[in-house]
Amino acid sequence: MRVEPPSDEAVTSSTDRKASGMTGKAYQVIVRGKFAPLDAGQRAALLARADEHDVFAARFTEEGTVTYERSLVAFTFRCVVRAPAEDAEDVVTGRAEALASAAVRGLGVDHGDLASVSTDLDSIKVRPRDADRKELRRRRAAVLPSGRHAWCMRLLVLGGTWFVGHAIVTAALDAGWEVTTFHRGTSAGTDLKGVRTVQGDRTKPADVAALTGTGPWDAVVDTSGYVPRNTLHVARALAPVADRYVFVSTVSVYRDWPRKPLSEDSAVLPCPPDAGPNHGTDTEDGPTRYGYQKSGCEAAAVAAFGPDRTTILRPGVVLGPREYVGRLPWWLRRVAAGGQVLAPGSPDRPIQPVDVRDLAAFTLRTVADGISDALNVCAPVGAATFGELLAACADVTGAAASFEWVPDDVLLGQGVRQWSELPLWRAYEGVWRVDATRARQAGLLYRPLSETVAGTWRWLTEAGETRIHDRAVEIGLSRDKEQRVLTVWEASGKRTG
Q1: Are 314 and 374 in contact (CB under 8 A)?
Q2: Which of 1, 139, 163, 415 has its CA 20 to 30 Å from the CA of residue 342?
Q3: How do residues 434-484 score in pLDDT, each as one tens digit?
Q4: Strands annotated E in 304-439
Q5: Residue 44 falls within a domain, yes or no?
Q6: Distance from C-alpha of 163 to C-alpha of 317, rounded to nearest angstrom
């Protein structure tokens, strides 16, 4: 929907500017303001829009974009204004503020005073790619002295077509950021409209060198780094053309996961930043080569960008739409089939998965806020239970399913594989006791688990079968084995229900 600008001759729409052949400078203008007091209906309408977007609610118009966070206190309007070179800055910002006012009123609300800043885009385009990063930060600080998330960031996502990367790209586009993705183009994932795609293989130096020529960027988000040596090479190549490196890691880097509760102060697995793909070993229900490798990738990112320009995100279990591993999709399909469902352990077992959309939103926040830290990204300990997860599956699928909760020792005695045959079940103390207090203090928001379940079911029913991934073949208990375990449990005489 287009929001018409006020009928003021000084305000010219982008279409009119093109038709009239107006030339001159192009300015990116960012207008910030506060919402006027909102009544219940206005708040509900704005929050309904917020539910449609994962970081910001956005009203995309031909004139610009209004974004706001769910606090409903302030808003940001971004647009590009073309003006004759002789126009003063206050004339340019005045046009932008008139467009902002019209766009906000188009949301059905009013606003208070507006404050705006403009940037000559032509001066940015001719900026040398190897310009000093401190000067770049100084200029941004002068442009946006207090505006968080207001700058139209330039983001490079390594990967970005399947699950976590796809969610990050979606959130960045919703926020009005300029997004470049770099990937081989061979997976089943697809790029989103509005993304600049650079196809290449991160393991090929020539491809990485070509990628650097398409920068610069405010930040790189690496969702596809798995081998330290390769991550080190890629990060070093990108360090001159990017201001920050965000590495998406995992709680598997911790030495004592999943056996013990942990925080960011817990010891991580040792791995040098230049380690090859064979470093580390797999231990049954303990450290894995995957964890060692990711720990080395973290070290590689810091070695290339330095601690002040590096963000390490350590999510636990990530669920939500497009989950290719298939943990939550398996439970949804099993519950949807109805009947007696084998449920692991106790319905009161606490779990703390993070929704992929909340992980994406927090990733952008760390970029915009310049957070340099290693942060666990999970829901709070005890935020949900396994029983609530399965109840939500039954609710969204409308299935006539009943749950038979079988104790851990019985499942283990029957050879049920933890984490895979019954997804998300693992009988160790530390699995769901990951402290993510620091991330929440830094702005991590998490949605109810029921919303994650509903969003995943909606995606499954709209998209059909999940894309086949190597890891998905390990997920799920066969119906024959499920029935055998249930029969043994019923014959034990220990059932209390």
Answers
A1: yes
A2: 163
A3: 999 999 999 899 899 999 999 999 999 987 654 555 666 778 999 999 999
A4: 310-315, 318-319, 339-344, 350-351, 354-355, 374-377, 384-385, 401-406, 418-419, 422-423
A5: yes
A6: 13
Please state the domain count of the chain. Answer: 2
Q: Is residue 427 part of a domain?
A: yes
Q: Which of 142-146, 174-178, 243-247 is the least confident region?
A: 142-146
Report pLDDT digits (tens) over 416-426.
999 999 999 99
Can you tell me the distance from the alpha carbon of 497 to that of 483, in angstroms, rounded to the nearest whole number? Answer: 18
The whole domain housing 41 covers 14-134
Q: How many helices (H) and strands (E) would you count in the chain?
A: 16, 20
Residues 346 and 215 in one domain: yes
Map tokens 């003063």 to a residue.
88
Residue 497: CB atoms within 10 A of its CB come to: 6
Kindly state the DSSP code that residue 21 receives in the 8-state scheme: T
Looking at the fold, whether 307 and 244 belong to one and the same domain comes out as yes
Please indicate, yes or no, whether residues 230 and 90 belong to a single structural domain of this protein.
no
Same domain, 120 and 180: no
Pairing mode, strands 350-351 and 384-385: antiparallel
Can you tell me the distance from the alpha carbon of 315 to that of 234, in angstroms, rounded to the nearest whole number? 22
Q: Has residue 462 been placed in a domain? A: yes
Residue 494 lies in a domain: no
Contact by Cβ (8 Å): 475, 425: no
Are 33 and 68 within one domain?
A: yes
- State the average pLDDT over residues 83-110: 83
Q: What is the CATH number of the domain that holds 178?
A: 3.40.50.720
Which two structure tokens, joined as six digits, stand for 132?
Answer: 């000093």
Query: Residue 149: which of 305, 461, 366 has the closest Cα?
Result: 366
Return the amino acid letter for 450: S
Phi, psi of 209 (to 5 degrees): -65, -40
Q: How far apart are CA 339 and CA 400, in angstroms?
A: 7
Average pLDDT in the 289-310 region?
Answer: 96
For residue 395, the one-letter residue type is D
